[in-house]
């Protein structure tokens, strides 16, 4: 029902863009052509994913590339056209300017699409934070933790992009690397062979990971096996010592669990009975944040939101995830929510660039 609702809303969005774009054309056949293109664009992304899952067709990958870019373009065009309708009050005022304003909106959408593609395909930026972690021994003061999140490896982001990320990581020399979910996108089959590329990520105190909602969609057990073959220590509702006095805890994704009707309490369970020391919780979705703080985590690392990825979608995401992106202090615990290292769907980002986060831990 959820996916049917999403497809229905997305169909209405395409219809609105087609309605406004067709209205700018003089002839009937041109307007029909616009409506036909809109219908094809609406169907292209689900068709590409279905072909990939059901038939393994060689055209699925290229089709998904085109469909994903079209998805982002139509979204941005819709936002710009809604803004144009706001200016002209849906053409009720300044009717002589309505056509010009809508043409300007589509031109602006084209420029924003190019900017989003450039920002989405560029190498992720490095954001740096210092965090004072209670319970961290003085001997570990200065330990660096690199957070990578939401890589979404698959048909769109693959080996060459991952290699650029790895070379950047290598130059940062982190003591610990953590992947906070959504390493995969689509299915494990489409990432076959990339476990060897991921195994090249290394750090003195280990490479750690938790599952995200897309690991659930790809098949949870297969996804965990894939990450373990890459050399990741996958934390599933437990806490372990990465080094004496430095504890890493992790839970399977909470948003996917809630959608499947699982109860809460996983964060408290993972942190109960943990070894002594400074504690970092890896949790893909920024949920149960207060539970993490109450249970003794000093730092929580999350992702999932992508900060909306394409502006202004973040304002919708914020309604479901108030901790959208950035750094927050919650009841004595630091929460850092990554904008994501990769991208989902369109390889596009607008004013929410991809990032990797380098955290320097300080003892009290």
What this model shows, in words?
The strands form 2 sheets. This protein has a 6-stranded mixed β-sheet, with helices on one face. A 6-stranded mixed β-sheet has the order 6-7-8-9-11-10. It is α/β, with parallel strands linked by helices and 364 residues long. The chain starts with a helix and ends with a strand. 45% of the residues lie in helices and 17% in strands. The chain has 12 helices and 12 strands. It is elongated and about 75 Å long. Helix 5 (159-172) links the parallel strand 2 (144-148) and strand 3. It has helices at 2-22, 28-54, 60-88, 95-121, 159-172, 194-198, 213-218, 220-229, 254-259, 266-271, 289-294, 314-320, and strands spanning 125-132, 144-148, 176-180, 207-210, 233-234, 238-243, 246-250, 278-282, 299-302, 326-330, 333-337, 355-362. Helix 1 runs antiparallel to helix 2 (28-54), helix 2 packs across helix 3 and helix 3 (60-88) runs antiparallel to helix 4. The chain folds into 2 domains: 2-121, no CATH class; 125-362, Metallo-dependent phosphatases (Purple Acid Phosphatase, chain A, domain 2).
- Provide the β-strand percentage band: 15-25%
Q: Which fold name fills CATH's third level, the topology of the largest domain?
A: Purple Acid Phosphatase, chain A, domain 2
User: Which strands sit side by side, in order, in the main sheet?
Assistant: 1-12-2-3-4-5
CATH architecture of the largest domain: 4-Layer Sandwich
Proportion of helical residues: 40-55%
Mean pLDDT over the full residue set: 93
Can you count the helices?
Answer: 12
SSE order, one letter for each helix or strand? HHHHEEHEHEHHEEEHHEHEHEEE
Q: Choose one word for the global shape.
A: elongated
For the CA atoms, what is the radius of gyration?
A: 22 Å
How many structural domains does the protein architecture include?
2
Distance between the termini: 49 Å
């Amino acid at each position: 029902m959820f996916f049917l609702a999403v497809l229905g809303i997305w169909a209405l969005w395409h219809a609105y863009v087609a309605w406004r774009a067709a209205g700018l054309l003089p002839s009937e056949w041109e307007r029909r052509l616009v409506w036909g293109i809109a219908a094809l664009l609406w169907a292209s992304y689900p068709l590409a994913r279905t072909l990939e899952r059901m038939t393994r067709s060689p055209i699925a990958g290229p089709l998904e590339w085109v469909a994903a870019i079209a998805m982002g373009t139509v979204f941005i065009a819709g936002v710009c056209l809604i803004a144009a309708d706001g200016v002209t009050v849906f053409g009720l005022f300044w009717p002589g300017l309505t056509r010009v304003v809508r043409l300007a909106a589509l031109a602006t959408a084209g420029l924003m699409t190019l900017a989003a593609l450039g920002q989405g395909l560029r190498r992720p930026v490095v954001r740096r934070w210092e965090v004072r972690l209670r319970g961290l021994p003085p001997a570990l003061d200065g330990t660096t933790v690199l957070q990578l999140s939401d890589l979404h490896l698959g048909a769109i982001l693959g080996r060459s992009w991952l290699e650029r990320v790895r070379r950047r990581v290598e130059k940062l020399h982190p003591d610990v690397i953590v992947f906070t979910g959504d390493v995969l996108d689509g299915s494990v089959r489409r990432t076959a062979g990339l476990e060897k590329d991921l195994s090249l990520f290394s750090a003195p105190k280990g490479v750690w990971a938790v599952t995200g909602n897309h690991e659930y969609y790809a098949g949870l057990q297969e996804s965990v096996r894939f990450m373990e073959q890459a050399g990741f220590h996958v934390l599933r509702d437990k806490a372990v010592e990465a080094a004496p006095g430095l504890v890493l805890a992790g839970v399977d994704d909470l948003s996917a669990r809630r959608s499947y009707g699982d109860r809460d309490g996983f964060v408290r369970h993972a942190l109960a009975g943990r070894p002594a020391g400074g504690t970092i919780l890896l949790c893909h979705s920024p949920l149960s944040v207060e539970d993490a703080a109450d249970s003794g985590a000093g730092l929580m690392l999350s992702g999932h939101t992508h900060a909306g990825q394409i502006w202004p979608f973040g304002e919708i995401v914020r309604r479901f995830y108030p901790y959208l992106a950035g750094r927050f202090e919650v009841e004595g615990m630091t929460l850092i929510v990554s904008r994501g290292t990769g991208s989902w769907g369109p390889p596009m980002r607008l004013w929410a660039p991809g990032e990797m986060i380098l955290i320097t831990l300080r003892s009290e």
